[in-house]
Amino acid sequence: MSTTLAEAADALAARLREFGGTAHVVAHSLGGLVACEAYARHANLPDGRIVLLGSPVRGSRTARAVAEHWFGPAALGPLALGELAREREPAVPPSREVGIIAGSLPVGVGRMFSDLPLPNDGTVCVDETELPGATSRIVHDVSHTGMLFSSAVADSAVQFLASGRYG
Fold it and tell me: Which end of the chain is least crowded, N or C, by CB within 10 Å?
């Protein structure tokens, strides 16, 4: 959270190179932006698919609302402030199959800061997770944090990693 997107992406790329063989990535929230940036910056990464869990690749209404408060910049940190608190034009990492998992259970801290349009996961709106060119997409009835503990989300992630598709 205290680094730049480029630095975080470079660090992820270095870790992925350590695997040697296929290296799939499952990333939650801001981690999805880091994963996409790593693949965009580094063409020579190992083969593998990417699953983004509730990643606001288009920017975050919640982050923009938090950033407006006096505590916002410190609470978000430079990475989230720089990347989530603005609208973004996302791009699918080149030559990668990317699966999107979004949540639609509107329970979360984001609703305290912003009147989020439905559907949302309480922090990230489903439309903020839309990534043109993504291979497959699914929405589960889970909250932003809840998707980390959901067996349905885990099953979908495993299915995408195995086949490149949901359902």
Answer: C
